[in-house]
Amino acid sequence: MQKRIFGTENEYSFAKKFGKGGGIESESANILLFPLFQSSDSYELFKRYRVITKSSNLAEKRFWLGSNGGLFYFDYVNESMFPEYSTPECDSVKLCVAHDKAGEIFVNDVRRASAKENKPIFVDDFIISKNTTIYSKEEEGAQCVGCHENYLADFRFDPVRISLNMSLPYPVSQLFCNFLTPFLISRVIIHGAGGIRWSRESGWHYVISQRAFAIKKLTGSETLRDRTLIQFKEECAPPEYKRMHLIYSDPNMSSFAAFLKFGTTHLVLRAFEENNDLLPPVNVGNPIHKMYDFSKDISLTRKVADSRTGKEYTAIQIQREYLNLVLKNINGFSEEENNTLELWQWVLDKLEENPEELYRHLDWVTKLHYLKAAVKDIFSPKGRLFDFLYSDVSENGIYNKLREAGLVEEFVTREEIASALDNPPPTRACLRSRYIRTILDEKHCSWHVDWHLVNENPKFYLNDPFSEHNEELEKFLESLRIKS
Q1: pTM of the model
Q2: 403 in a domain, yes or no?
């Protein structure tokens, strides 16, 4: 499938600041952020982004952006509530990355407005960060937030669907999971955001990916406890599609790393979609623990044995095997796909030669490079604070300061990010955006918004995620304009 829908959901860590910058645990996000959406102070924010609740029920905690079709809401993680932003459906990798960065700006605007409302009471400011793991003390059971990647994919790849219909032939889903797993567990060297982690056996130590350690199983549907590497979600679309949902990766500040994360996965997916009998170039036994090993190995020398041949591979070598497989099994690449291939090859070469040379490109390298320069003991409380502040989405965030100074490589321009804030992608997000804008402009008192559906009576189903046109919905919206 060369034409695909992409999307990402980012959960955000949260803290508040007192006088000289003291912080508290993040479970206050619900108490301090949500009231903004029920107060008069939300007016400017709602007006700027054309925000509307999911339905006329004002108790909703899901807020749709008419400006671009995205979604902001509060999600529960380990009994605490965290802010989360979902991009609209995007039809290219670069557009998805631009919308992800646009989400950071919206979330920061929520922070500003909330701080303004709460300051007279007891808060000086908030910090909202894309940092993955929240350690309030030395414990392994730290709260963990993350990034959820979404890819429209062939419905046959879903192991849950197959298990419910045993009349089908030998499931493609099992072949698919076996094929994709070695690629995903080695991809941590590209998408890892870096971080300081604590464990009983190692104490404080730097890892390539913090989020990897939250994953416990290969497949399934659990997103909070026994989190899985590969999931599929129901997608109201033509029956041949489902939404592949990956919840194991770190949120990226680097748009370069985010582009490679999505772009390489798309190409590996496409290779299997176009040739279902492809075998994985490397077979890895006990893949979840192998992913932990790769995530702990900042030297990139850790090897795992192929369970079939006994040959040993580093994470870089596994990635290279998949790159070669893509080149051999796909005929015809788009401009964006060719760009992905070139950057994939270049990054693997640099990781093999000297990872430090990627300090402008990959988050885990960037963070470690500047952490060592800023803090004598990177595992001290000051070092752990640096880890958190690296992904602060405000202008005071460490990554954002590096970007302002031209010290990191950005893959999307400020103009592209600004456009993503104010315009939906050319997908069904356009229909959702037009519906929300019309409801607000015409001051209609009843509404309903969801990914695949708008309005309550009558209902308009947006079953095709690629389509930005719906004749019946357009007629309905025009009737609202005429009535007003």
Answers
A1: 0.93
A2: no
